[in-house]
Design brief:
The chain is an alpha/beta fold.
């Protein structure tokens, strides 16, 4: 999917438009931010929602002003590519199901059961292990169809990072990555593709960023967290998972928020990151880009909350601006002052 907020306003040159590519996870929010910013400033944004793998590849190739990824790069990887990263929002990856007669939040799954389903070991919805967790729930004798991403995906990275932490079997057989060798299921492209498959296939289970679950009216589950509590995906449960994050102690702002402690924490929580080059070829364009992100931090919290993302706290925004001042330069001079 490609978001184009074109330079339609009179007197605005197309060359002023900013370009980005990558994660589908934050796309609904980036679309709203871009639309509002365009109306306010005349500066447009062309954002290609192609998945985190594509976003990382495009920023490394310098074909866009910024890349977006839900899978953070390590400090070593950033240094090797001459990149800087910073988080824009926190959100939740949510397992969703297509089961007739099952209401949102009615089905409970443990961490181990979710992993076993995605490993292909649990094949029916009325499996005794699922039934034992859900007494009184009319589970159908229907085959489970696993839906996963077909493209290089930061959402997949967050999801498999979680399974890798909670399931020794998953760790041994599959592991964590933007693309993995899925033991079972069918693949959809982008969060949009996974949501569409789950809508169409009865008996399916997939994973999407929460905004896609809401927008497509998909049925979420209750998932067991690190504290052994079954919790629902909400902005509050994402915030609870992020509450203990110490960004100031994270080299390269590399921080993973899956399987966090706390009774109220949603276990598959993650941040979505922006990647830009440390050395900018065009100082004016780079300043325009950072102006946009600064506006998102300052004025975009309401839009983020409306879509159930968690805005970055003020102390994290201040830390990000410190990184901009110290690391983002053009011809030896700081771009952000």
């Amino acid at each position: 999917m490609c978001l184009t907020v074109a330079a339609a306003a009179a007197g605005v040159a197309a060359a002023a438009d900013l370009t980005g590519a990558g994660a589908t996870f934050p796309y609904p929010l980036y679309a709203q931010w871009a639309d509002s910013y365009k109306k306010l400033t005349g500066v447009g944004l062309n954002y290609q929602s192609i998945g985190s793998g594509g976003g990382i590849a495009q920023i490394k190739a310098q074909t866009v002003d910024f890349g977006a990824s839900d899978a953070p790069l390590t400090k070593a990887d950033l240094d090797a590519a001459g990149l800087v990263q910073f988080p824009m929002i926190v959100g939740g990856v949510v397992p969703v199901v297509n089961l007739e007669g099952i209401a949102p939040g009615a089905l409970k799954l443990s961490a181990a059961l979710l992993a076993d389903i995605y490993l292909g070991g649990v094949k029916k919805w009325n499996d005794p292990a699922i039934a034992a967790l859900n007494p009184g729930l009319a589970l159908p004798a229907r085959d489970i169809t696993v839906v996963h991403r077909a493209d290089g995906s930061g959402t997949t990275w967050i999801f498999t990072n979680y399974l890798d932490k909670v399931s020794p079997a998953w760790h041994g057989k599959v592991g964590c990555g933007k693309e993995v060798a899925w033991p079972a299921g069918v693949g959809g492209k982008g969060n949009e593709g996974v949501a569409a498959y789950v809508q169409r296939i009865k008996g399916s289970v997939g994973y999407v960023e929460y905004a896609y679950a809401l927008q497509n009216k998909l049925t979420h589950i209750l998932l067991e967290n690190h504290a052994g509590k079954f919790v629902a995906p909400t902005q509050a449960s994402f915030q609870a998972a992020a509450a203990g994050a110490d960004w100031s102690a994270a080299p390269g702002l590399y921080l993973v928020l899956t399987d966090q402690p706390g009774d109220a924490s949603w276990p598959i929580t993650g941040a979505s990151f922006v990647l830009i080059h440390r050395e900018q070829r065009d100082a004016s364009r780079a300043k325009s880009l950072l102006d946009f992100f600064a506006w998102c931090f300052a004025e975009g919290d309401a839009a983020a909350s409306n879509l159930d993302y968690v805005p970055m706290p003020d102390d994290v925004v201040a830390l990000v601006e410190t990184v901009w001042r110290s690391e983002v330069k053009s011809a030896g001079s700081a771009v952000w002052k």
